Amino acid sequence: MGFFEIRDLCKSFDTVTVINQFSIELVEQTLCCLVGPNGAGKTTTMDLITGRQKPTSGQILFCDEDITGLDEHEIARRGIGRKFQVPAVFRDLTVRQNLEVACSRSTNPVKNFFRFREPVFADKLEEVLALTGLGPRLNTEAGILSHGETQWLEIAMVLMQDPRLLLFDEPVAGMTEQEIDKTAAIFNRLKKTHSLVVVEHDMAFVKQIADVVTVMHMGSLLAQGTIGEIEANERVREVYLGDTEDA
């Protein structure tokens, strides 16, 4: 058993099968882009990995443990963090306060107060701010950040939980070209220490970040390989690369 593996995953809603015998394996410290046409099953796959939905059959294995069907909080505790397409930041709180909330492990505010002053928290905060470039915005309310900064804040919030596997759903949607380039730089630094699965339809961005590209079609694995291998695959070109719409 390796770092992360999906084996013959299936998900059906009544008589409709949305994930059909889908299997992938991810090597540690690898960035995998999950791409495919509209309705291919990419977001459902992310939901199944994180426990947001339960699979009909198949297995999901992470760090030598079968995590299939566990609840969301149990999977998060094991080291899988997810950022959704729409940022879920606290707009009335500052950047620092958002990062403190993300790092909270107790409902007791006094315990959290002392924890936030521990050297390990300060070190993690410094590391995350350096990666995302949010240091100058630390005391800024999240509600007045730009779109790109808001996305980076949520990336930072996921990182404060110190996951080993990071899942991102269309992280550059709505970004300017400059913001996309900065996000690519963030991801290329992240994959030196983390493993990432990124659902994305922007193939220019995929080219900048992907170690491996996994193409889904109708809930199944269509192809997997480097960006060069995927672009040269006639079946992929037929079902996806001519259609850049995503879901």
UniProtKB/TrEMBL annotation:
Keywords: ATP-binding, Nucleotide-binding, Transport. GO terms for molecular function: ATP binding; ATP hydrolysis activity. Residues 4-243 form the ABC transporter domain. Gene3D superfamilies: P-loop containing nucleotide triphosphate hydrolases (3.40.50.300). SUPFAM superfamilies: P-loop containing nucleoside triphosphate hydrolases (SSF52540). PROSITE patterns: ABC_TRANSPORTER_2. CDD domains: ABC_Mj1267_LivG_branched. Signal peptide: none annotated. GO terms for cellular component: plasma membrane. It holds the Pfam family ABC_tran. The keyword Aminoacyl-tRNA synthetase does not apply. Involved in beta-(1-->2)glucan export. Transmembrane domains (TMD) form a pore in the inner membrane and the ATP-binding domain (NBD) is responsible for energy generation. This is Urea ABC transporter ATP-binding protein UrtD. The lineage of its organism: Bacteria, Pseudomonadati, Pseudomonadota, Alphaproteobacteria, Hyphomicrobiales. The gene is urtD.
